[in-house]
Amino acid sequence: MPQQLEYDEQGSTFYYFLISFYGLFLLPATYFLWPSRKKAAGETGLVCQCDPCRHKRVRLEEEQPRETLWIITRVAVIAVLWLLLAFMLYKVLTAEVSYEEYDPFSILELNSDATMGEIRKQYRRLSKVYHPDKQGGDQDMFMKIAKAYEALTDEVSRENWIKYGNPDGPQAATFGIALPSWVVEKQNSIWVLGLYMLVFIIILPIAVGTWWYRSIKYTTANLLIQTSQVFFHYLSKPRQLTIKRLLMVMAAAFEFNPQYSKLLPPRPSDDEELTELIHSRDLPHLTVKVKEPVLREPWAVKTSILIHAHLGKVGLPPATLRPDQKTVLKVCPRLINEMINILNQVWIYARYRPSPQVSTPPSQDVYESVMRMSQMVVQQTWDRESVVLQLPHIQTDMLRHFRTRRRNITTVEEFVAMKNADRRSLVRAISDEDYLDVMAVCSSFPHVTISTETQVMDDDDRHKVTAGSMVTVTVTLERVGLLEKYKVDQESLLGSGTVSLEEEDDPVINHNNTVVENVGAGEKGKSQRPSWEKNKKEETEHEEPEEPMEEKSGSVSEEG
């Protein structure tokens, strides 16, 4: 006859089972749900007050209550889950132990050091009290007393008790199920069976099916499969892939197709607003007359226009195209990474599995062009434009002061490295408030220094590398702000070495005021110009016409 399984009557062992599986869920859930600490903005002391930065701060402040509510909700959920774990631990610690070790001395009501005479005497006394023939006797207790007496007086029984904890010798192991007994009770069977069907027959298949249906539509980068197919089709063609064409390919991502995604829904005002942008002169690099599949679709053309408007710093209607542009820009980094992955696949196919469709591996210029696209989207500038245009209030017509015979300022770091007076003179066409905005943005630019050290850890001479040795390379990366790197004092940005536009002798605004400084008793009343204003006068006299910017490799060019 099969042995009947024992269930947990008191529920103590069930809590052990529940805590084990609950802990496997709770620990990773706490790790992923716990809100991460974000670095506070504005730690450099300078805050840009230009319109885009102010609008961004206002938008972040508007989103802050929702984010705070979401953080509070997550913390509350985590707290409730841990309180539930604490409750289960409390139940385990306070549960009564059903298993008791067999102790014949306690049954005979004796101390463990009792002598043989005391054992016999106590046995005779208790057997008279609990003998079943006596009035008020207890047969079960009498049997326990007899067994305890035998365990202490019989040598074999005593040895079995000492070795195995039972005078009868080793016992058969009993197993049970760590589930409460009400699970198998007849009156609860319908509810248990219903819960089982709900979880394992309805919810679980639906969850797995939903996950599978979604997974077959997306790549590991959480992009649509159709997007990767479009990228592979155009990136594997043996033709020149300029940045202009790569932008068109990126705009053809199916994330922007209304039939596959809701990120970029069509609007009734699109025809009028997009047509106005197409016929304007603000987007000189835009090409909309495309006959190739997917690239000619209206949603792909709209996406391309929004990307070109971003790179050209063209203002868009705030209620329609501007939100769409923000949506496109959020997806662009993932699309660029996917294009790099597709280029790697094309290179592998062309190198190891050539076919008529994929016969030529992509060149290094194509890789560089795709990487420059990421830089362009982040910096909001075309690749052949000066990187200084990233700074607020810096216009294209001001670049002629950056590249002359006397100086050649091509990067933000070179601009910050200048003396305060010379730097202020270079952007003399903007106000002091705008100049502080420029320096506030410069303070967020990093200066990164990378140093490496090679060592052979097991050799006496660690810095001597021999053939076949195991080399350990230590890479140290140091990151500091540009203002800290070049020791630019934020408080002296508008010090005595600078003059506001109202006091500057600028031929553009035609103000001829001077700054008077008493430099000595013999020079009272003489007008002294600051160094940056003298430099300005020299530039006015000797400045060359603006030199054309040299085109970089992979720059945007018109396509036939």
Fourth-level CATH superfamily of the largest domain: Sec63 N-terminal domain-like domain
For the record, the CATH class of the largest domain is: Mainly Alpha
Shape: elongated
CATH architecture of the largest domain: Orthogonal Bundle
| Series of H and E elements | EHHHHHHEHHHHHHHHHHEEHH
Strand line-up in the sheet with most strands:
1-2
Average residue pLDDT = 79
Task: Compute the CA-based radius of gyration.
Answer: 41 Å
* Tally of structural domains: 4
Region (Disordered): 504-560
Keywords: Membrane, Protein transport, Transmembrane, Transmembrane helix, Transport
Membrane topology: Multi-pass membrane protein
Biased composition (Basic and acidic residues): 523-540
Care to describe what's here?
Its main location: membrane. It holds the Pfam family DnaJ. Residues 504-560 are annotated as: Disordered. This is Translocation protein SEC63 homolog. There is one protein chain. By secondary structure, the protein is mainly alpha-helical. It folds into 4 domains: 6-94, no CATH class; 104-164, DnaJ domain (Helix Hairpins, Orthogonal Bundle), CATH 1.10.287.110; 226-382, Sec63 N-terminal domain-like domain (Sec63 N-terminal domain-like fold, Orthogonal Bundle); 396-542, no CATH class. It contains 18 helices and 4 strands. It has a two-stranded parallel ribbon. The chain has a two-stranded antiparallel sheet with strand order 3-4. α1 (12-33) packs antiparallel against α2 (51-94), α5 (139-153) packs across α6 (155-164) and α8 (225-235) crosses α12 (321-352).
